[in-house]
Design goal:
The protein is elongated. Helix 2 runs antiparallel to helix 3. The longest helix has 17 residues, at about 40-55. Helix content is about 25%, strand content about 25%. It contains nine helices and 15 strands. By secondary structure, the protein is of the alpha+beta class.
């Protein structure tokens, strides 16, 4: 008596397509005749699993089977549809050569895409603000000028592989299935080069070094990747070139710290300047900026300078420059300084009764 297809594959009746495919793949690899030569029991289990998968992987057949059972899809191998296996290369790749198992052709193209390249550039924070154009050396393979990337001598053509007859695969009979494997002579391309190009020795590519101009837009961040399409390694035998990825590293600045599109810096003033107010010079990448410090400024207070930060990458506007004020308390005083401070202390009272915040709230505000 024929077993239930779901039982054969070891899945539930509500299984997903991916669960179905995964279960079948495990069974097929376990019982495939190529792995069990001469084992009739394994061959029967493989055919049973293949029959079950051919039905359950088809949406319409699965619906009919769920309603009416085996009779809905035919008896014996009547439910086994070889057309279902046209996509088995997605399940097995080239492991068992399924691409040609039912008469299809799996000849590989000689042309292959070139590899991607990476170049690292270290830039200054100033370059982030203003943008930069620079040149970098790039060493890569490029298509051979003599054969234009074909690898074949001028005036010659690749020859049909005699081992596989140009199919790119060799077929073997294994029990129930006709198994195809990639031809080792032509590596699956169906062609061999008998007259290679003397310049590149049949490779179709040559290594060259040239300088490439790189445009760094304002607003980039540390780790930004800039892609240059087609600037990587040349393709093999006429295939498309890979891409070049320029990866940026931004050096830490001795004066500024970046936070998003904002810049932060610190200026130091004396105690009298903090009490009376003053004007300080803040260096920016566009020149010096005169910043007025209001009277009574507190140490740690932040004063923003609008639109002096980092430009928005490929957008409009800029962040701000946040100036952190540090009030310096002298560690050593001469006699006159001490007298003046003592006199100031005698006529000055600290009144924080109006501040309703708790001690911890005030400390938190100071640290921000």
């Amino acid at each position: 008596m024929k077993r239930d297809y779901y039982e054969v594959l070891g899945v539930s009746r509500t299984c997903t397509e991916q669960e179905l495919k995964s279960s079948y793949r495990k069974l097929a690899m376990q019982y495939h005749p190529d792995r069990n030569p001469g084992d009739k029991s394994a061959e029967e289990k493989f055919k049973e699993a293949s029959e079950a998968y051919s039905v359950l992987s088809d949406e319409n057949k699965r619906a009919q089977y769920d309603r009416f059972g085996h009779q809905a899809v035919g008896g014996g191998m009547g439910g086994f549809d070889p057309s279902t296996f046209q996509d088995l290369s997605e399940i097995f790749g080239d492991l068992f050569g399924f691409g040609d198992a039912f008469g299809g052709s799996r000849r590989r193209s000689r042309a292959q895409r070139g590899a991607d390249l990476r170049a690292d550039i270290t830039i200054e924070l100033k370059d982030v603000i203003t943008g930069k154009t620079t040149e970098i050396p790039v060493r890569k393979t490029e298509a051979c000028d003599s054969c234009r990337g074909s690898g074949v001598a001028n005036g010659k053509q690749p020859q049909t592989c005699s081992a596989c007859g140009g199919r790119g695969q060799l077929r073997y009979q294994q029990g129930f299935f006709s198994v195809a494997r990639t031809c080792g002579t032509c590596s699956g391309t169906g062609q061999v080069i008998t007259d290679p190009c003397k310049t590149c020795r049949g490779e179709g590519r040559m290594i060259r070094e040239h300088r490439m101009q790189v445009e760094i837009p304002p607003g980039v961040e540390d780790g930004t990747r800039i892609r240059y399409q087609g600037e990587g390694e040349a393709g093999i035998f006429g295939g498309p070139s890979g891409d070049l990825y320029v990866v940026l590293t931004v050096k830490e600045d001795s004066f500024y710290a970046r936070e998003g599109n904002n810049l932060h810096c610190m200026v130091s003033i004396s105690l009298p300047q903090a009490a009376l107010g003053t004007e300080v010079t803040v260096p920016t990448f566009e020149g010096d900026y005169k910043l007025k410090i209001p009277p009574g400024v507190q140490s740690g207070q932040q004063i923003p300078i609008r639109n002096k930060g980092v430009p928005v990458l490929r957008g409009r506007g800029r962040g701000d420059l946040i100036v952190h004020v540090e009030v310096q308390i002298p560690k050593k005083l001469n006699q006159r300084q001490r007298e003046l401070l003592e006199e100031l202390a005698s006529i000055t009272e600290v009144d924080d009764k109006h501040d309703k915040r708790t001690f911890f709230e005030r400390m938190k505000a100071r640290l921000q």
